[in-house]
Structure prediction request, 238 residues.
Amino acid sequence: MKKLIIIDDESAGRKLIREYLQDYEDCEVIGEATNGEEAVELIQKLKPDLIFLDIQMPIFNGFEVLMQLDEIPQVIFSTAYDQYALKAFDVHALDYLLKPYTRTRFAKAMEKVPKPENLQNFAESLVLPTAYTEKFFIQKHQKLITVASKDIIYISAEGDYANLTTTKGKFLSNYGIGHIETKLNPQNFMRIHRSTIINFDFIKEIQKQISSYDVIMSNDDVCRVSRGYMDKIKERIV
Prediction:
């Protein structure tokens, strides 16, 4: 059963979505919000699978709502304004319903909601558009968790996958470490081993060994610098 929240400051808009959702027995509306602040609180509390999101609302607009969330549900925008369509797809909305829309158009939007077995493919497409990625989206059970790059302590390879050790816990990404490295700002992150990338902001100390260095991170984990990456560390030592 998919859990849904409808977010719209107009009662007619919320009512129409509820009416159209009657055709979907696997969907349950677990809440409604009439402004951006209510939306953030409700999403954080109820953790829906999908939200129908208006854009022009009191307090926070639809895009501001998304930027404040720890977990990003699947999103279908429902709005009377067409000028935000490109921006909506920049944040990887499933669809953009322009009011007034028909039941047929609504059904086409619902066809884009990924099935649970396809959720990881959906997660892998989610990278916020910046010069370097500020947030990654990682699947955890049936949710997509946002991991801010500034919270990453270090990244370690695990076969074809990568473990992100962060200030909020550990997360396994379906991306390989090489792919993630291309998304990170090199001013903050450095590859010190073929299987390790560290965040300089979380270095506690560096211990010189006979032929290498051990980097002690803020959580006391030890990351070994391999010989091939020694020069990169030396460049940072003054």
User: Anything to note?
Assistant: The chain is about 25% helix and 35% strand. The two ends are 58 Å apart (CA to CA). The chain has two domains: 2-113, 121-235.
